Amino acid sequence: MILCLFIIASGWRPQYTGIIHWYIAYTLQWSATTIDGGEQINTVLTFLLIPITLLDRRKNHFYKTVENCNNFYSKYITWLFMILIKIQVGIIYLNAALERLKNPEWADGTALYYFFSDPIFGLPPYQLNVLEPLLNSPFIILVTWAVTVFELFLVICMFASSPLKRFGHNLGIIFHIGIIFTIGIVTFGITMCAAVILYLRQWNNEYSFTKVKKTLKKYINLKNTKRFFVDSSGRSIFK
């Protein structure tokens, strides 16, 4: 299974690995002894991605879109299922926010205090010691409510303009990475980072990593550039 996941992550032949990805997610959801919610979401999203991957004839999903992926039917089916994915993720955030409002601890702003202080599911001791002044202050009410408000904000982002979507996209990823490093639900955090990308990024807008490429290129050029020196005898040398 791990080998299959490495192959899937490598991007090799998404037309074939898309179904395998869903099958692994599905079996993990039903066979894992401990799940944190990310498994169910992963199963649903990978299932909705199957029609898209079946139409993806690239050798690797990191390659740019090839000509035979640009026909009308492929674009229409891709668009349709990406809309379904966006609706699904939007419902997840909307349901999470509304369900919290039904809980007395979330409604009065003390839920994070109890959750972070829990000896089993809460923060590790070193983080708890750092955040204890915040947890014992009235500001914890604002922080608790900020979680619910932020999830409602992400719901609104589905209908927002591109700049606001990008803002929500970046904040959403930071939010879920924060969850990973605080309460440690890694599977859920990684899954939701992927869900945010599918949810708020334009489906045909490829990641270019322009800044990363420029930085790497600049570093490589500097490393390969010969340096000019003048030794003690006055001779010009290159190193």
From TrEMBL:
Domain named HTTM-like is located at: 1-204
Give the superkingdom in one word: Bacteria
Q: Which InterPro entries match?
A: HTTM-like, Sporulation_SdpB, Sporulation_signal_mat
Annotated membrane-spanning segments are none
UniProt xrefs under PANTHER family: HTTM DOMAIN-CONTAINING PROTEIN (PTHR39535:SF2), SPORULATION-DELAYING PROTEIN SDPB (PTHR39535)
Give the NCBIfam families listed for this entry. export_SdpB
Q: What protein name does the entry list?
A: Sporulation-delaying protein SdpB
